[in-house]
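Mods, move this if it's the wrong board.
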Amino acid sequence: MPGKRFLVRLLLLIALLSLPFLFSPAPARAVATSLFISEYIEGSSNNKAIEIYNGTGTAVDL
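Not the wrong board. Structure tokens:
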């Protein structure tokens, strides 16, 4: 059957064309190299605070 043969070839072509998308490498991510002040809070009087984020993955002596 010519129709069946065409369908098989079409499915094979689609499978071959989709292979690069299935095995593509993961996107690169930025690596933090320093501390980051992620939040600043200011309240009344002397109520102030900062939140420091350590994205380096290593211990940091403050």
